[in-house]
Structure formats: structure tokens, C-alpha cells
Amino acid sequence: MDQGEGALIEVDSVDFSIGEVEILSAVSLAVTAGEFVGIIGPNGAGKTTLLRLILGIARPTAGVVRLSGTPTSQLRPRERAKHCAYLSQDLETSFPYPVSDIVMMGRYPHLGRVQRESSHDKEIVRRSLAYVGMSGFADRYFSELSGGERQLVLFAKVLAQESRILVLDEPTSNLDIRHQDQFFSMAGELAGEGKAIVTAVHNLDVASRYCTRLLLLDRGRIAASGPPAAVIRPEHLDPVYHVRTAVTRSVSTGSLKVDVLPRRKTGQDIGVHVIGGAGSAVNITRELFRLGYTLTGGIAHESDTDAELWDSLGIPHVVVDAFASIDREAIESAIAHVEQADVTVLCPFPVGPGNLGNLELAAGARRLIVIESDESRTFFDDRAGRLFDSLSRRAKFMTYRELVEAAEDEGGLAD
Q1: In 10 A of CB 170, how many CB atoms?
Q2: Which of 47, 133, 187, 251 has the fewest beta carbons closer than 10 A?
Q3: Is 381 exposed, middle or buried, given 0-12, 13-18 or 19+ CB atoms closer than 10 A?
Q4: Alpha-carbon torsion angle 105, 193, 169, 45, nearest 10
């Protein structure tokens, strides 16, 4: 179990079944104040069921769920609501009420059956609407709002409940990217202020960007758990979602990006070794991988975009430290890939003393294809220029488009 001292949410070895159908099995989770935990997994994995158990709406077949140390089975609905606020994916469009009345419904755990709202309650409603940017909508009718506006109003209602725990079920599934970013940014801020937030989310890119921890469910069981970078990996995602994925890191945000790769074509039993650097091999690697070629990568520096892509696709390659020169040991480690490949592709990257070894690696190619560049190649070392000239005498030069078209032909790159 993910134990956390003073956990606000504890799901301890929980099973849940409906009749003979097992929905969840041996699920454990602990969430402390300040955490923003994302529950991910395909449809039918058990995400919503887990949220319902946390809320106390459903009771586990085995195991126990606690809120702030108290089993949910011992809490009455009003008490549970003081601990835990819930936002569903249902926009509840049938409410014919003013926005301020909708948000005031969040105060029900704090009001008696016949108690009227106080000035304090009204102030909380005002502040909640202001926080989500809906101050000017208090007197508007809920049913007249757009989908994004309605979800923000319902989020304000959740905030007005003043619970330390927020449970969100696919809260942005119907929202555009602006409202999606606004919503999750606010949720992250609230976690930073000490709330414990658990959300079911389908969008893996969003989950990796905003959540501090992820729980991947597969048919009711935990497939992986931990920080986003440890969970959002092809070896975890592929068997759960039954697709091939590529996981890369966004240059602009630093968050993880998940792409579903097309199924490989059959009949392409050709090995290609790709030598790149400085991101020059990214595009051709993607194209050749899509077409089903068996790929190996050259020698890349740590954190190079080429290395990150080769890692995410499971393509064997050799890595050296960032800014280090490619030494003889690295060349010897990579030469077997070159010798086994039917074709070696040399990408257009600038060459200096640090990566001269990749040109030496190309010298061992059975058949060498050099990708022509729109710009002249840059050599920061006389040896690099001389070695490239030597390679050029026996290489075939092709533009990127010509290489892709040749790879798509029935004969592929074997001809």
C-alpha cells in the first residue's frame, strides 16, 4: 500500500464485486494533504468505482476505506461531505436555478435542516465564484451557460463545501483545452494549499502534466503506481491499453506526451541502423518505425532528443554523457549494430570533436545512405570533413522525402 503518514484518504486492500463480477481487486492507495493523484486506465478499468468507494457512495466487498482516519462505513452522509467534496463528469444541465443557488448547495454539510444561509455562507459562495472566474455570473441561470462555464460553476460549488478532500471524476472530459488548462491549474493550486485531490482522467498528457502521482488501473487491479515519469511508460501502458505507444517529453512544457503508434506492417524484415545527433534522427526514426523496419540507433549524448525517442520506442542504442566526446569504447559497443544492419542511414547533424565517433561508426556500414540537407553540413573539425568526404565516395545520397518514399515501396530499402 502507498502509505502516507497522516493520510487523508486510505484505501486498504479493497475488493469490490457486483454479484460474481469482480470490479476491483486488492487496490490500495493513500493520499496525503498536498497531493494531486490521477487515476488512469482504459474504460472499464474501475476508475469511477474506486472514486465511489472513496466517497462512501459504495462499500467495498473486502478491505476498508478511511477518510481522515475514520472508516467511511462509520460516517453519515453529511459527515462524509464535510470530509470529501465530489465533482462528477455529469454537467447536471437540468438545474433551473441561478448560479449563486447552485454554488450555495455546496454549503449543505454545514447547515442544519431548517437553517438558512448566513452572511458567512454567502461570502464563501462569492469567494468560490471569484476563484473560478465566474463572479459576474451569480444571477445567471445555470441552464443558460456553456459546458465550460457550467463545469466551473460546479467546481465553485465543490469549493464552497470547504472539504479537505476533492474527488473529481473526469472533470474536463467535455471541456476545450482552455477550460481544461484552467480547471487543472486551479486544482493543482488547491493541492499546493494543502488539499488532497484525486481525479479520474483519460487524457494521459494532462495527467502527466498536472498530477503529482498516478495510479494505473487494469481490469480492477493496480498495474503501476508512482510519479508520472515512472508510470507513463510504454511497458506499463501498452499491455493495459492494448496499443503501441511512444512517450516523449514536450520541449515547451517538459511534461510527457503519449502517442499511439500504428500497428506495424508485415513483411519488412530489413534492419536499419540510424546515426543521428542533435535531434536529426527523430523524423526518419518515426517513419521507419511506422513502416515496420527493425531499427537500431547510433551513439547519442544523454538528453539528446534522438536518445529520448529511441528510449521511448525501445530501439537499442548507445548513450554517452552529455557534452562528453564519443570514445573508442562507445564505438566498439555500437559497431555490432552497424555490422548487423542491412542499411545504415547517416542523418544531417553538425560534426565536431565530440561526436566525430558517429562518422567513424558509419564507416562500418554494409550499405550507407546519407540524407541530404537543405543546408551545407557543418564540420567543426578538419578530420570530420575528411572522413565525411571518404564516406561520400561509397554512399548513396537521398533527400528525406526520397528516403521515405523508398522505404514505403514494396522492396523497401533493400534495393
Answers
A1: 19
A2: 251
A3: middle
A4: -150
Give 373's contacts (C-beta < 8 A, 6+ positions apart): 348
Predicted confidence band at 178 (pLDDT cuts at 50, 70, 90)?
confident
The whole-angstrom separation of Cα 411 and Cα 415 is: 6
* pTM for the whole structure: 0.68
322 to each of 184, 301, 413, how far by Cα in Å? Answer: 34, 5, 32
Contact in structure between 292 and 265 (CB atoms under 8 Å) = yes
Report the DSSP beta bridge partners of residue 346.
275, 370
User: Which cell numbers in the block locate residue 251?
Assistant: 520541449
State the Cα torsion 339-341-343-348 to the nearest 10°: -80
**Sheet containing 62-67: which strands, arranged edge to edge?**
21-31, 9-18, 62-67, 70-71
264: closest CA among 248, 282, 247, 243? Answer: 243
Cell 463572479 belongs to which residue?
135
For residue 407, the model assigns a pLDDT of: 87
Cβ–Cβ < 8 Å for 76, 48: no
Length in residues, the chain? 415
Written as nine digits, the cell of 20 is: 460474481
- Give the span between the Cα atoms of 43 and 298, in whole angstroms: 39
